[in-house]
Structure formats: C-alpha cells, structure tokens
Amino acid sequence: MYDYHFGNKILALRRQFNLSQAALAEMVGVTNKAVSKWETGKSKPTTNIIRKLAALFKIDMNELLTMRDEERKMEISKIVITGGPCAGKSTAMSWVQNAFSQMGYTVLFVPETATELITGGVAPWTCGTNAEYQKCQLKLQIEKEHIFEQAARTMAVDKVLIVCDRGTLDNKAYMNDMEFAEVIQFIGSNEVELRDNYDAVFHLVTAAKGAEEFYTTANNSARTETVEDAAALDDKLISAWTGHPHLRVIDNTSTFEDKMKKLVAEIASFLGEPEPYEIERKYLIEYPDIKWLESNPSCQRIEIIQTYLNSCLLYTSPSPRDPKTS
C-alpha cells in the first residue's frame, strides 16, 4: 500500500534544500530509483537511512519515523498512455474509464498538454524557438499532474487511477539532444526523475505502422505528420520511455478492438486486478546475450516465480442407494 503522505514530505524537503533526486541519493547512499520510490509512496527508507535524512534536513528523526510508519487507506496510481500519431489514445481513454470505473476506481484524466497549447495558439512555430515552446509545455504538464495528484488526495475514495494523456518524456521525441538538455535544466530536473515519476507507461503504436489504411489527421487539428513521419515519431517515443521499469508497447497485430482489450488487460495486470478481457499470445525468441544485458544500465536481473495449475475434471461416483429407502 502506497504512503503518499511520507512521500510528499520527502519531496518537499528535497525541493526545500534545492536537491535533485540524484544528489539526495548520493548523500544518503542509495540509488536514484530508491529516492523516486520514496517520493511516489512505493517504498520507505530503512531506519538507518531515516537517520541520515533527518540529519541532512535538520529535522527530528522521530518525526520522519512516525510519518514512515503511518498507513494510508487510499491507493493512487499514475500511469501514462502514450503513442505515435493516430494510435487510438482518445478511444483508449473511454475504454479505460469504463473498465476501471467498474472495478471501483475513481479515474482521473490529465488532458494532452500539446493539443491544448497548439489549439490555443502556442506552438513550436509561434514561439521564439522549439526549445522555448518545449519549456512551456513541460512546465505546464508537470503543474497539471501535481494539481491532479493534489486533488486526488482530497477525495474520499479508496482507489484512484490518474491517467496522463502523454507524459513528460514524450517531449524528448520532439527535441534534439541539446534542446532537451536545455529544457530539463530549465525545469531543474533530469531524465530519470521525469521517467520514474509514473508508475507505468503504456505505448499504443501508431496506425502508420501496421494499419496504414486507418491513419488519418482528420480527427486531431494538432496532428500534421505524414505516415512516414508518424512511424518515425513512434520509434522516437518508444526510445524516450525505454528504461522505465513498466513500459508496455501495444502494437497493431490484431484488430483495433483487440488492441483496446490488450491495453485494458495490461493496465489491470499492473494494478493487480483481474483482467476483464483475456488475450494471450506466445512467441519464440532468440536467447539474449545476458552479459550485454547486464552491462546495460537500463536492465536489471530479477527472479520470477510462475505457478501453473493443470485443469482437471473432478468426478464423483454416485452413492449407492440406502436399501432402507429403496
């Protein structure tokens, strides 16, 4: 169960001392990911780390210990639904709303920031430079998410699912490396911090890859990409999110309805909920180069235990009649 109260306290203290997640992690001897998990309520530091944090932030250790041990009943999950142009995101939102409302979730949607800005007249071609536009978009995106999270914590409900129509790292696909470095420096963050701010990321592949006959720009006034541009942008978006511990890519190998069912099933699986729709496929892949994977900073070896139950029929023979009642 996530502890957002404690996580928000750590986040506020870190910002008060003007520290990045990487800097705080180094000062107390943990990884960036550990700090990210504290701030999102996914995990809590040990007592030894609490002692270091209290000394660093100059507060009473017992205050942090008490907060760490408090339990909150509310569960808040924040996910991203992203994808290339004409991937089905708008329809996906309706499917997610319907499926998870029935599971007892209060579903909140953070609208796509780029569409809001561009349709309002703020665009890369109206701002001074693309980097200046991206600063505006990223800052607005972050603030909108904070507002939705703040609002969620005031709701008298047990489970909240915050669905972001694109996330902060989507911006990276629209910039070169120099522009991206300038933008994240402007907002005082880093790539890992932006990426791990979400619990899960679900990428819907553009119709321009595998369903070209359905690709259109007619249903979004902010969409201008050709089929070729859309396919290339889709690859850039996947690359931008690569490294997230729970990134799922949903392609166009089946019907559009099956694509939506698979999205709902993947989200349900992540949340630990029963899958309302079952789609199972098996693939035979070439065995990977383990040494190369272990040398990649975005990869981590984990142990997985899978339990399989054999289906069987239970047959019970009829009881003989009681001769007294025959």
What's the gist of this structure?
The chain is an alpha/beta fold and 326 residues long.
What does this structure look like?
By secondary structure, this protein is an alpha/beta fold. 45% of the residues lie in helices and 9% in strands. It has 13 helices and five strands. It has a five-stranded parallel sheet with strand order 2-3-1-4-5, with helices on both faces. Helix 11 links the parallel strand 4 (200-204) and strand 5 (247-250). Helix 6 packs across helix 12 and helix 8 (130-153) packs across helix 9 (177-187). Mean pLDDT is 83; it is low at 319-326.
Secondary-structure topology with pairs:
Elements: H1 4-16, H2 21-28, H3 32-39, H4 47-57, H5 61-69, E1 75-83, H6 89-102, E2 106-110, H7 113-119, H8 130-153, E3 159-165, H9 177-187, H10 191-195, E4 200-204, H11 227-241, E5 247-250, H12 256-271, H13 290-295
Helix pairs in contact: 2-3, 6-12, 8-9
Encode the helix/strand succession as letters.
HHHHHEHEHHEHHEHEHH
Q: Order of strands across the biggest sheet?
A: 2-3-1-4-5
Distance between the termini: 60 Å
Largest sheet: 5 strands, parallel
Percent strand equals 5-15%
Count of separate DSSP helical elements: 13
- What's the oligomerization state? single chain
